[in-house]
Write a structure and sequence with these properties.
Layout (H helix, E strand, L loop, with lengths): L2 H7 L2 H27 L21 H32 L7
């Protein structure tokens, strides 16, 4: 591992982003299990809306599925953002002295 890679992995904000991505992904898996366990996977037939509405449904089953969709979006955004950050930081030269 060269200096630029080790420098980005040691930054406080990058570690926080990695932890947040991992937590969101774990919560997504647990929410997916809950949706599947409850049998709610077919409540909202279209994506990203629920029967053409952007509003969260009032029934619990619809709320579970809509919540899972929102969590999936946030988790994907966090993982994608962290990945882009790592690649951009790897390309940038390391700052500071040896």
């Amino acid at each position: 591992m060269d200096n630029s890679e080790s420098a980005i992995l040691k930054t406080k904000w990058f570690r926080r982003a990695l932890i947040a991505s991992a937590i969101l992904t774990f919560l997504l898996v647990m929410a997916g299990y809950l949706v599947r366990f409850e049998g709610d996977q077919g409540v909202c037939s279209d994506w990203p809306t629920c029967y053409g509405n952007l509003e969260i449904p009032v029934d619990l089953t619809g709320q579970l599925e809509a919540g899972h969709r929102i969590l999936a979006f946030l988790s994907g955004l966090a993982v994608f953002g962290t990945t882009v950050w790592a690649f951009l930081a790897k390309e940038a030269p390391a700052r500071g002295g040896a």
